[in-house]
Every structure is written in C-alpha cells, then in structure tokens.
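Dear all,

This email documents one entry for the complex benchmark we are building for the journal club exercise. For each entry we list the sequence lines for every component of the assembly. Then comes the predicted three-dimensional structure of the complex as a token string, followed by one or two observations. Please use this as the template for your own entries, and keep the labels exactly as they appear.
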Amino acid sequence: MNLERYSRQIAFERIGSCGQNALKGSTIGIIGCGALGTNILDSIARSGVGKIIICDNDIIELSNLQRQKLFTENDIGRSKSKTAEQIIKNINSQVDIKSFDMRVDKDNFFRIYGNCDLLLDATDNFETRFMINEECFLHNIPWIFSGITSSSGQSAFIYPPKTSCLKCFLNSDTIPETLPNTARNGIISTIASAISSISVTKALKYLIRKEIDQEIIYMDIWTLDFKKFFVSSNPRCAICSSLHKGRNTK
Amino acid sequence: MKITVEFVGAINTGSYEKKQDFEIEEKTTVESFLKTLDHFHESHIPYIQVLCNGKRCAHTKKLKSGDYLELMLMVGGG
C-alpha cells in the first residue's frame, strides 16, 4: 500500500501507522447515497478504509446537486450508487468499493452488509432506520445513526449493550408522515457536511481504537446550537433489552 | 410552578419564543407538559428528546419548579 497518500493522517498521533493499517483492514457499509451518504463516502474513501459497500436504488436529480457532493450535472439520471462507485474509484483506487443499485430490506440486509465491521446510516427515513436497528442487533453489527433536515441533525453510535439502541430513545411504533423532511422543510448543505464529519470521525475512532462515543450529538448549524447527551438503555426496550445481561461484542 | 423551556434547532416553536417560561401544575410530567404545547403533533412527541437541567430525561419524569428543559426533535432526512 502506498502510504504517501495518507502521510498527513498518519502524522496525526491518534491515528499513526497502526491506525492506518487498521483502516486498511476494515470493511464499512453505507446505506444510502444522498447528502449524508456522499459526504460520508467521500471522507471514508479518502481516509483509506479498505473495503466499502454502498447501496441506494435512487437516481441523481438536479435538486440533489446542492448538497450531494460527489455528483455533477453530467450525472443526472444515472444511478447514485453506481455513479458514486465510479467516482470513488477515481478518488482512491486503493479502495475496494462495491455498490448495489437496490433498496435495502430485511431480506437482503445480511447478504449485502453481513461482513461489515461497521455500518453508517445515510438513509432518509425512520422506517429504514428501525429496520437497520433490528438487523444490526440481530447480527451484532455496530452502526452509526445520522439524520438531517433543514439546518439540524444528529449522530449516535449504536451498539448495544455498550450503548442504547435506536428504540431505547425513539420508542414509537408509528412514524408520523408529518415529521420534518428535506422535501417539505428544506436543507442546507452545510448540515450534511457537519453531521457526516461527526459520524465519520466516530467511525474512524471505532475502527482504529474500538472507541465508542456514547453520547448523542445534536446540532443546528444555523443557530450554532450544539448539544451532547447520554441515553441510558431502556431495560424494557422491545429490541435490545435481552442484552442487558451482557453479550460478547466485537 | 415555573419552568423554563428552550426549543433547540429544527423543532417547531409554534407561537412561543425560542426560550420561554411556563407555569405548570405540580407533578406535571415531561410528556403531559409536551401535550399542552398544542402546536406539536402528538405523534411527534416520542421523537422529541428532552434535556432537563442539561441531562437527558425520560418523558415520564416529573418536573420540579425551576427546571430548565431543552427540546430537540430527532430529524430523519439524509
């Protein structure tokens, strides 16, 4: 591996050459290739993670270009996942990237992401996130929840029993259609970059040092509100309560 | 009794100020207080994270005089 590309990252003492090797040996999955997904993918690929798996069944539209960093006007109408794969190969040919032009569901989740060391959520809806929460719990895969709308967003590392699970702090069986979303409430590109950067940093810390940030980050890039808070596991959680007695984790 | 509430980030403030004092009854819980804020869809309430005096609290928590609440809506775009 040519390490010159990573020399400035290796010079950062918390990563170093050991950390760089750990990244090289890691596999990351990214679900979704929109504003969060393209920002995350760009940073993960440039950092030298060895293998990346991405999945999105959408095509690139003009309205995406304001915040979806990898794409250009020439890409409109093309598959997001396949286009992103090609662009990442041009950014860092040392990365082994595999794309799936399909929607992730319970039936294909393990086939696509079963060998990942860590999964990064870059979806745009809670329905898929609750599915990720269940599947990652079932298959003992740590994941990072990210969400953005307007100028706000949040990031949370989820790996019970070391952390709470998504259902521990979003204990709802209904997903209201009226929750704010980017089509209705808009979005500025900087919140996508900011939340992606936080989530990718959490990912690097985990892959390199097995460090887990247990606090949820909530921020608003417009008002510059920044909150960190800890969520205890819910002993009656419908998903992860069985783990509170302890389970081996990676 | 009086509590102070701050609406953080993308959460709808309705007709309230971003930071505002509220008079509430003794033994009011976080959830019952949130339901009195009539601009919230009831279905959104589980998606509201609440910090009480800087620490995250469950919606079942009973509020005390002088409590400072920060309300954040978890957002789902990507």
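Observations: Chain B has a mean pLDDT of 93. The longest helix of chain B spans residues 30-36.
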